[in-house]
User: Fold these one by one.
Assistant:
Number 1:
Amino acid sequence: MPLPPPFVCSACRQSARILRSSNASSKRRYTRPTFAPKPTLDLKHIRQNPGLYKQNCIDRNYTPYAENGWRILELHEQVVAQQREVVELRQRNNVLGKELKKLDGGHGRASMLEEAKVLKGKLAEFEGREKLAQEEMEKLGLELPNLSSLHTPVGDEPAVLGHINGNTPPTGKGHRSHIDIGRDLDLLDFEASATTSGWGFYFLKNEAALLEQVLIQFSLSVALRHGWKILTPPSLIYSHIASATGFLPRDQNGETQIYALAQQTPDTKAASLVLAATAEIPFAGSQANKTLLSTSLPLKVIGPSRCYRAEAGARGVDTKGLYRVHEFTKVEMFAWTSPPSSLQTPSTPDSEFEGGFDTADEEVGQQQTQAEEVFDEMISIQTEILTSLGLHARVLEMPTTDLGASATRKVDIEAFFPSRTGIDDGYGEVTSASICTDYQARRLNTKVKFEGGGGTTTEERASKSGGPRNEGRGVNSGGRNAFAHTVNGTAMAIPRILAALLENGWDEVSRTVVVPGCLRKWMPGGLERIGVGRRG
């Protein structure tokens, strides 16, 4: 059930002001090639609401970028003032041109030619400064995270939305770790992987290796029943595609997120590559520079892939075993949806550099958007999978500090791990679902075409209740194109689900692991227990 919008103070509605100090934002760590999608940011909305974006950055732990909105406003006003001066210079240049045509020669003509030459130099200088200002505004805008949904709690505490398979964790499961179970039943080998690859890698053996494939098939079968289409993605992705989806080589705290590949060519301008941290990245990039028909949406795909996470940070008891690893198999859901209808009139194109602020905030409609419908469907699929596997779990509305750059809203499902009762009461994330509105589509140039001019999709502003909120923003269609909204969600994160199944299915008396009934038809001979006939 959706939570009521949390209270947000009026500080984010502070009146417009210009800050002269520059922020300490980091530079892009890759070169965007000429063939990369050109981002189209809503700089007008940022300029009109710099306090909104500042508060949003503070709420989401993006403090180094909190002043970006004010800096964009400052640069914009400088460009507007400069353009007024350019108009005057061009008017003078036109006058000179007409007068020069009337003069045959003499000192007067020479002085006019000199003045025209000076004017031409000034105009070229203004054009260069305007280009630099535009590039700086784009850079500052790209660093800003998406606005947060009204459903998202402000702070660092999630809200519990419900539970799966009971309201309380099961009792009598003991506290045996999947690491020990895996070793006893010859299912996991961390020592061999430490030799070949280092910390954070693993070998799956025997029934565990089979379960990896079975879990893939099971999760795909559930999604297929709901009408999803299977798509298998590549693992090597261009850096600019990863960045456009919200995955940067380093996050706002400077920690490594994803693996970058060293270039084997002397061409330093070649497009750099990274290993995909999730299939969300190649899925989103597959529709870059494309226009989708609104009648074909939502477009829903699901597919298995190998994922690679640098997972920088301290090692501890909560990272042991399969819980946090560098390489793993995951089945991911991704969807492109139509942007929501707007209650506002079309926005003036940003290139016209209109001045002033739009103070007429409109109430956001209560009708569920297509993205929200798909989002709910994803959570329903996740719930169905975990229910069938017999895993107790809790459903959480994640807070602002836990949202990635692209997400406006995120719901996590945490399963119960008997061996982790001393860490967050034994709960650990196994699935996640996010609405990203037009954040990714604007950076990948993925649009929606509305036939016959049906449906309007203009910029939707935050409601009068205030706060750094985003309930769906697009661009006015009116027969034109609009930016798509994207949604992503985990169907199956193999290592963590496997760990949860081993710990929750462990029978201390028989020293075996019970295989969930929904998986047995894919196991050899319909295997019901792992470890039967083995010595503990």
Number 2:
Amino acid sequence: MTDDPSRQQDRAVTDFVDSLDVEDLILRYDVDFDAPMRQATAIGLLRLAGVHTPDPSSGLRGIARRLGAYWCEMVLADVAYEPLTALRLIEASRPDAERLLADLAAGGGPTGSEAFTAYVVARWYDGVGRVRYRLGSYTAARIAFGTAVGVAADHGVWWARPDLISNHVRARFEEQGQASRRDDGRRAERDFVGPMERARDDIAALAAARGVDLESAPTPSSPARHREFLRGWSNALHNVATALRQEGRTEESLQQSRASGAVSEGLGDIYRKAQSLLNEALCEPGDPTHLFEELRDLGIGPDGRPGPGWPRGRRIARQQLAARRGDAQGLAGLAELLDDLERDAAGPERRSGLDVDFYAYTLGLYSRTAAGLPADGRPGDVVDRWVHMARSVREAIALPVYKRTYSRLMRPVFLRAIGRRVTECDHRQRSLEGLLSLVEESSGRELLDMLASSSPPALGPPSSALPGPVRPAGADGPDRRSTLGSMDDAEAEEAKRLLQEREEQYEQYFLGHPLSSATHDEDIAHQLVQYTLNHPGSCVVRYFRYGGPLDPRMDGEEAPEPDSLGIMVCKGGILTLGRPLPYPEVAALAARVLADIQARFVPQPDTCRSIWELLVAPVWAHATRGEALTHLTLIPTDDLFAIPLHVATEPGGLDPLAARVPLSHSVSVAAFVSRGRHLLKKQLMEDDDDLAALMSTDEAATGGEIAASGWPVDRVHVAGRVPAVLADRIAGTHRADWEGLAELVSVEPEFFVYAGHGTYVERDGGSGDPLLYLGSADRLTQYDLALRVALPRNKLTVLGACLAGQGMRSEGGDVLGFMRSLIISGAGAIGVPLWSVSDGAMVSTVSALLRESRAALDGSDTGVFDVVQTLHDYYRRAVGTYTQLARRIDEMPLALYL
């Protein structure tokens, strides 16, 4: 009796799968599947063999096979420009990679499998490096490539070393460039050619030692290890060619490119051959059309149907061929390419891999080509295409490393579109709502993305610290703890190193846990109108930037609005567009504030009057019309985040703004209205609310604001130096270190106070980053707060440290610094100082807030605490005792953000 057909088919599949040599397939993947761009074929076979499925009985060898299969998938995701997929693959396979790496380091692993295990571990880390490099995270890429190089060298995987070495050198070069741009804002002159040539020469020496022929063209019958070695050699030659071209040495670059292309030709390596063709075309002194045509047609069969190939290379060729025509037909070719890119952006998975730079460059060519046509032949969709791109890309860049791309490439598009909308605005309500909606769409998006995530991370302490002395009180001035530039050069360098490391940890976390992009609310302006209608006496002022210089890619289009600051006021349901201000005046005012703080600790009276004249006077009549002003909310942008608007003082007057009206700030209309942060103005107090305080460990942090708060000691939790009057009554106190911070956070305190010291690390352009002391052995950065602090029930947080509010401005219009991190962590209303505050003023102000919050209970189990009104009332009392404006300003240390 024979089996039925279905059983026969099952047996045939089983026999086929059993015949697969999975390890041999993985070892040949680079040259026999990746080179001809047939990665999917290998991956299909591996999936069919069930290699990805954990099998405890297979031991370490099975883990190595599974890791190899994941590496193959990572390569395909990288080539297909799908970084989200690649990141998920990395996270899924990381435990296997770390397990095998540790085993190799210990000399473990089953007999006979070390070479295979070492190969897949080296290749996996190389794959991680490629993905990180693609995302622009060059430090992470360099570290991953370095691990790959080390494993290959230590365990005899000589045939993969050329590829790994070349990738490592390139990532190290890009990392240095990124650091130099971060420090001085420009691309420093660096030697790219030298390191690449040295790497090439090292690989040539290795070839001689291993008997690999670098002179003869390889053939499919050459040993697999030799072919893989030669593929890495081709990569090294291509990197040298690229470096030479960037230095303008085109003839030498062409020689290296042709040598690389010859090796790729012998290997059937479509990807590397395409790269060589592209470099040759870019070096060609005459007409490179034939080279771009060859690149476009690479991999296309005789029937005209595309076979395996490098899709991005084909698109580059199409782009260049169309742009070089410069006529209507060329414009049509660019339009077709842009349509392809827009179709690519459909769906969140694809948008995460949108080729941002290529999209922007293609659109720039489209703009310039259109501008070169006769007026009656120019398309009318250029600006609309730019805005469409900016919207698509904003959804594609929910990973932190892409945010820099957004500020560099996309925000200028929005600023220009806003300027166009301002010019066309007829001041009718619907027109103003459309303008405000566009303003909100353009800025504050990263914070909203993070708020849209399910919950903030709460990681353990970082791996490194920044030891150093705590500055004693009075070191920088009477009753002041720090000022700008107070660190010596060595301290500043160490602080910069720490900041960079913690920033990289922050980006690494969100690379592995990418955010979904929060949808823009088209009705946000109408919601603001409804808010002011339903809260009589409330007024919201939205500052926004627009216009500015043309991006070089937009050459040929009409001139935009000048770089300007717009002001939108909403009160009683009525939107009003104020007169525009020249943005350079705003930037100059911010620089003036910074100079005051550097020289005299505090913004000076003349500066505070200038803040009023420039930024408050234009809105004052609108804000005070009609019903009495009971709550003024100011929403800054860009440099305004560093300007202390709350102490703006009308010329001839003595009362700073926050002492004149109940005042708060917010980071965006969307956060204030649709995310409900306006609800933080009034909070329900309960008798079991907790107050947590993180105290600096030196003598200057007396904890006076805690001792004088009136809170019952059983609801007070302290990490650090306990105030003397409370020392014998507070149980469970902790040191002011990471463990102590974690204990405070675990309480989920409704009120959280940092009482200690702040320092400020200056960077390029006068901006910088604040740091808070965490005991005497470390510093707390904005990135630590975002990653390691969760305050889900918080009602008020105060950072009682000098300069904690500085560093909030960004080129993308977002709020940065501790403000962003605290909002992400779940903090309620937030009080931050913007200058080197007086200890006495800080203690008095915070004591008043804490005392009134508890007094709101009035003997009951519950009560209502209005933080905006409380701070306003305190400021009115505090300034009333002084007749000098300088003293009044100094007595108002906190800017309040809802």
Number 3:
Amino acid sequence: MAKPFDVCKGLTGANAPTKVEACTEAIKDGKLAAGDLALAYLNRGLSENGPGSDARAKDDYKAAIRIYNDLILSSPMNPYYYVQRGVIYQTIGEADRAILDYSDAIRLAPRETYPLINRGVLLYLRKDNNEGALADLTAALKIKPCEVAAWANRGVVYKRKGEIDRAITDFTDGIKCLPPKLEPIRENAVYDPLTTQLSSKVLDQNNLVLQAAFIYFQRGLAYYDKLQYDKAIADFSETIRLNPAAASGYVGRGAAYLAKDELHKAIADFNESLKLEPGQAFAHLQRGIAYHRIGEADKAIEDYSEAINLTPRDPTPYVNRGIVYYTKKGLYEPAINDFTKALELNPKEVNALINRGITYRQRGETDEALDDFSEAIRQGLQTADLLRLVNQAERGKDPDLARSADQVAHAYYQRGMALIDKQDYAGALNDFNMTMRINPREPRAYLGRGAANLKKGDLKQAVGDLDEAIKLAPGLAFVYFERGTAYHAVDDFQHAIADYTEAIKIDPKDPIAFINRGMALTYIDKIDQALADFESALQLSPDNVNAYIHRAFAYALKRDYARAMADVNEAIRLAPDSATAYFYRAQILAFQGESERAIADYGKSIKLDPKNARVYGNQAMLYNSLGDYAKAVADLDQAIKLRPREPVYYLNRGVAHFGLSKYDKAIIDYDEVLKLDPKISAAYNNRCLSRAALGQDYPKAIADCNEALKLQPNDPYAYDNLGIIYLKQGDYAKAAAQFNASLKLDAKRARSLYGRGLAKSRSGDSKGGASDIAAARAVQRRIADEFAAYGMR
């Protein structure tokens, strides 16, 4: 059976109520010496809990102090009593009174080290007086050159000042003073090293081992700051050997393993630390990072959530949980909520701004993304001088500066990518160049600049930049992934698939790479391979909303609508506020001909995300197919307002204007298409037909159709449109020749048969004309109505 006073001191690892009970028993026993009695009152006060605990704790602290007040009154020249009372004041947070007591002890016993050490600790911990602390600790070392506590604490002060090498020297000198082959602490749990000074056994073996564990731990932290992780791990391991019941050594070693990317070892250490000391927010946070990196998204979210519960004012776990939500789960709304909460806690949290911007961008909310990236740059530059950022020597000297530099560089990169979305390529290139200026070795800068140049059509420069990114980081999955997305964005799916494949080889546990490769495979009609990729993503992340959405779309392309609807409905169940899920369900419903339900889902998507141009654009295509051209124009007006440099929206609005017989407006839209991209043959074709229908500028109309044929030499639409122009001009031989060219490509083409029938009839071949017209009507019953719209009956 442990003695009550041992339980009171914490030697058995008892919980707070048990310690209160033991301290009370030890006090009532009446056999404790004055110092131990004061310690019993102090520990009981620190352990008080439940209703009325604050009042009881204050009474206990007063009782502990009263014991030393009486001792000092009876022996005012005894420095030991001042030290002990100072320890109590220090423990309960009354730093100024503690400093006064230590100062009196130093005056009375100028050759004693403990009051100097304790005052030095208070000066740097509570008063932020590093220089005063250094003076006290140096004075203690002059008195006793092998005072381990003085070496340890002076090293801590140097570390606080950023003088890591001097800190390591002090820790090493202190370690040299330790006896060889120290045995580990024997008790299950060890009381606080400060309150041990109130014990009658101040210099016992356990206290020495505590000092040894502390100094090894501090040197491990210093090595960690120097990025010397193997040395840090060795010191943390010695800390654990000396004091296996303390959680701190496991936390430190786990952090070092995490930095080395030895993730399973890190998780094992964090597990052990949390067994020893549950409720450590930092350990949960770090273990969450490790789980995140090995692809255990649910466990990562669980740890980040626990860290939030334990430290609800800390923005970091909110940021980390938000990153898991959007990268591993495809859940944008919860991610944005977490980043927003982090920014409420700390408006200068640059990582929250960057990641919220990325999430907005993935949701298609480019303007919101740009605002966040710009604010991140502004905040970052408040703490980082650009002239210093570009100085690599300075980056090496100041880790905080380097981190700030990386954040600012990343924000410029992300803003550049958002500007590409806005088709502001000049602005994007400026941002990527700024990224390079801050960090010339940052591969993302080259990836971004390459993506912008691809969009501009500068293929040679683009490929050079994209390849340079790979040279800078040949073994990193994200570089191949980002190069893949750049190719993906310009519909170069073969290159995109090759890069996604390389990213998967390097990191086979990232579901996003499988999802993106699956999307690219659908575009080249390799649906079964795409389905396999989406299945792989779901095996890695079983409730990944994006994987369900894109698998649903792939099933729809195979006309397997039952599975498609099952998947997209599951996505909506998992993320009922996902505008993307409703958008894709609308697409799938439209494929099935369920136009009314499709329009309802487009409406839900727009309500959830009213700034997504793609939704308006696709709904307009459905309205065009239904002949509801006025609604199509309204949707396309909105899409163009949101993305004014997207040629497909002008092209489709031209089609809608044509359907409304507003040929002049259609021609203006096609003009805009060709300003944005002069290689879109459909715009030449449609402008050709609009001019023909308007009955003006036939030479320009013919030139447009010929330009379309240059771009697409076997385009039957262009031949038909030329035939219509020649029909309207009365040149029936040329018209028939054009329709014949079209019929060589498709012998049952209704437009060509009907047009040739008109040409034959008007040139005197009534029988041949009637035959062609009948054949055309057999294929398309209302073909005559189309030609009537062009002014031909």
